[in-house]
Amino acid sequence: MVLSKNSLPQYFEIATPQTTHYKKPCNTYDVRIGNNTSLCVTIGESWTYGSDISERLKHVYGSVLSRKLDADWLNLGIPSAGNLFVRDKVSELVRIISLMPYDKIYVVCLLTEAGRELDSSRDNTVDYHTWFNNNINVYTDYYKFFAYLTDTCVESITRELLPFGHVQLVFATNFVEQAGVINQYDNFLQDSWVKMLCDQDNK
Amino acid sequence: MEKVLTLQGNDISHSLYKEWMCELLDNASARSALMNNEHYTNIHPLEKEHLFFANKLFDFINSDYDNN
Known about the structure:
The complex is a heterodimer. Chain A is an alpha/beta fold. Chain A is built from eight helices and five strands; from the N terminus they run αββαααβαβααβα. Chain A has a five-stranded mixed sheet with strand order 1-3-2-4-5, sandwiched between helices. The radius of gyration of chain A is 17 Å and the shape is globular. The mean pLDDT of chain A is 92. Chain B is of the alpha+beta class. The radius of gyration of chain B is 15 Å and the shape is elongated.
């Protein structure tokens, strides 16, 4: 298989009016293929896409990280996307992962706030009604809902990639402190990107 | 840190406030206008923030965490 900017829509659903704020279908994905034996896949929202960065494909974090890893790079980012988008891109990646000629694949999932794609085409088969009936008794239980949204997303991604021994999966968050299963996963960067920046500033 | 507001007892910095606003706006032109603000750019060039995060990820990937 050949990964290129033009071929990516064959494997990964691009931004469409049905799933995003884009008024026309738009391929926001990037790929950089060299002679590397490893691939770095970055998946997320505008911070992963690299909104507003000068020389975006040079400076966005996925580009920098893949160069440091001596890896080819696949960037699956759509501005305004949410965690369910990340989950869906992992599902699409899994369909072709065995066809990819890499010894090692790094998958970096940058999550954002829970609920960004609530009541959208990405969760229209989820039975929230039963969950609410079973879990909401007092008003503070609503906090559980956001943890539940993150949990199901992280668990799905982890489960899908688990069979692939050459995949190294890493989770991180942009500006939110995640609730839910974060403490149960060693591969979850504990502090958000923004918190790490603030900590750096305060030194 | 240049405080611009206090939220639930926490001082919120100018740069963090702008990040939040950008995410809330989620609008390319509004975000660009904010990001191109000289004050912001002098403190946090976006490219520097991405380099910072890439380095954090690289260190984490190469750390001894349990990948299973």
